[in-house]
Specification:
This protein is an alpha/beta fold. Among the domains are: 18-157 and 204-277, Rossmann fold (3-Layer(aba) Sandwich), CATH 3.40.50; 409-502, 2-Layer Sandwich (GMP Synthetase, Chain A, domain 3), CATH 3.30.300. It contains 15 helices and 28 strands. The strands form 6 sheets. Strands 3-2-11-10-12-13-14-15-16 form a 9-stranded mixed β-sheet, sandwiched between helices. Strands 1, 17, 18, 19, 21, 22 and 23 form a 7-stranded antiparallel β-sheet that branches. A 4-stranded parallel β-sheet has the order 5-4-6-7. Helix 2 packs across helix 5 (141-147).
């Protein structure tokens, strides 16, 4: 039997459709209910559904009055505040295409995005790096605040296949790819509600990530809002060790975080009495068995449910309260998904290793990479989108992760291309050659390490400063190793696998 698991077609997205309208579909009926609480250690800022919808549609009006029009691209350089989701949904509500970006990116990295996208303008928090001489209209946070109180805009309804938003990811070529998503992407996320979250209107979901992380934006905000649940987000500056208190104090029923957050919490707390918590969710990097077991022990039996996905299709394989993962597996394809394990000849037999692949018909799959049709085409094999990750599948659809087919690294839940990091660092005037990989420095903890050759030793502070000017913090090496020569494969190319044993222990 071949490794293809078809969970059956998902209900088609209605038309006309608007992503923001879908997210806020319960707002009128639940106008007094708390949609969002921004949690600090001393209190919380609360937003009702009525206030949330009003602010989103007011922001939409403000963006139109500022001269932007449907179809325009807006680059978002906003911080970890509520302005981020308000501006994101406000833009989409009126047909403008937002590009949410990490506040950790440097001005140099943002310049490349501006060159590629030619946006109509930038939404900017002055605390966030951004080239100010780009010649584009810039809307600051003070202007966004005033937009909240404007009369509500009407939703721009239309074809669910039209472009809704763009997000950036690092491709295997080392060039960050601009991933285009349609309005229908939010419709597809309903497959996660039962297939991963077990999400209901009564839930209070606390996500540990920042507002301006796409994992938070989807799992922590838009999905709870679309069913009428309450989203709980820690305020900027709240330390990870304070999260258990927030979970308990605010009666969180579901907790979502990257595996590294669970590890850091467990480093501070051996016992976590959380009577209202039903379970935890995790994604972004592979969850280790040790973190899973330690969390279950500390919480008196609360389970963690893992999901696998990527920027091009969000999460589509997961475990859930209704279907816990089989021992050693990621979980299974969500209902509505068609997933295969492929090699160059097509679907492999059950139990054999191949590339995790998503059928082209998946409603959550990207429209393509912006301005890169060849790169888009290269990701497909016939009717299948190739993720680049290796796994095997059994006859029940349980999928066991085997690792990347390439050298992509994982830094705190962000995928990072070593080629991108190497390209940013090689211009250093004293570096002759450079290779980058991730290193496990202790159980469940990995760092990015840079290995280089040079005619003379280079002070590490100089290397660190050079990286800080060119790379977002999560992409910067945490260790530098000078080598006499770089390891190579039989073809004379850099062997990144050969770098790992050279890391000093």
């Amino acid at each position: 039997m071949m490794s293809i698991f078809d969970q059956g077609p998902f209900a088609p997205c209605p038309t006309p459709f608007n992503l923001a309208a879908h997210v806020l579909q319960r707002a009128d009926a639940l106008s007094e209910k708390i949609a969002l609480s921004v949690l600090s250690q001393s209190g919380s800022e609360r937003w009702s559904y009525g206030r949330l919808k009003s602010a989103v549609l007011g922001t939409g009006t403000g963006l139109l009055e500022a001269g932007f029009k449907p179809g325009d691209i807006l680059l978002m350089r906003l911080g970890n505040t509520v302005e981020f989701p308000l501006a994101y949904l406000g833009a989409i509500a009126v047909g403008i295409v937002p590009v949410p970006t990490s506040s950790m990116l440097t001005a140099r990295e943002v310049e490349k995005m501006i060159t590629q996208l030619a946006p109509a303008g930038i939404l900017h928090d002055t605390e966030v790096a951004c080239p100010m001489d780009c010649g584009l209209p810039i809307i600051d946070t003070a202007a966004l605040l005033k937009m909240r109180d404007l009369p509500p805009a009407s939703y721009d309804m239309g074809d669910p296949e039209r472009l809704a938003y763009i997000i950036y990811t690092s491709g295997t070529s080392g060039t960050p790819r601009a991933v285009m998503h349609a309005h229908r992407a939010i419709w597809a996320r309903q497959m996660m509600h039962e297939g991963w979250y077990g999400l209901t209107e009564e839930d209070r979901l606390l996500h540990a990530g920042a507002f301006n992380w796409t994992f938070t934006l989807g799992t922590g905000l838009m999905d709870p809002w679309s069913v009428g649940a309450t989203a709980l987000i820690p305020a900027q500056g709240v330390p990870i060790e304070a999260i258990p208190l927030l979970l308990k104090r605010h009666d969180a029923t579901i907790f979502a975080a990257a595996p590294g957050v669970y590890r850091k919490i467990l480093n501070h707390r051996a016992a976590l009495p959380l009577p209202k918590l039903r379970h935890g969710l995790t994604a972004g990097e592979k969850l280790s068995d040790s973190i899973r077991q330690h969390w279950t022990d500390a919480t008196d039996g609360k389970q963690l449910f893992e999901a696998y996905g990527m920027s091009e299709c969000s999460t589509f394989i997961s475990a859930s309260p209704a279907h816990p993962a089989a021992q050693g597996s990621l979980g299974r394809p969500q209902v509505g998904r068609k997933i295969a394990i492929l090699d160059e000849d097509g679907a492999v037999e059950y139990g054999k290793e191949g590339i995790i692949s998503v059928h082209r018909s998946d409603p959550g799959l990207m429209l393509g990479y912006y301005g890169a049709p060849d790169a888009t085409a290269a990701k497909f094999q016939g009717e299948w989108f190739l993720t680049g990750d290796h796994a095997s599948m059994n006859a029940s659809g349980d999928i066991t992760f085997m690792g990347r087919v390439d050298d992509m690294m994982n830094a705190g839940g962000f995928r990072v291309s070593p080629l991108e990091v190497e390209a940013a660092l090689l211009p250093h005037p004293q570096i002759n050659e450079i290779g980058v990989t991730d290193i496990e420095i202790k159980e469940d903890a990995r760092i990015i390490a840079a290995f280089y050759t040079s005619d003379a030793p280079i002070p590490e502070p100089d290397l660190t400063a050079f990286a800080q000017d060119r790379l977002a913090r999560y992409k910067q090496p945490r260790a530098w190793v000078r080598l006499a020569e770089m390891p190579t494969n039989p073809n004379g190319k850099l062997s990144r696998k050969g770098l790992k044993p050279l890391f000093p222990r």
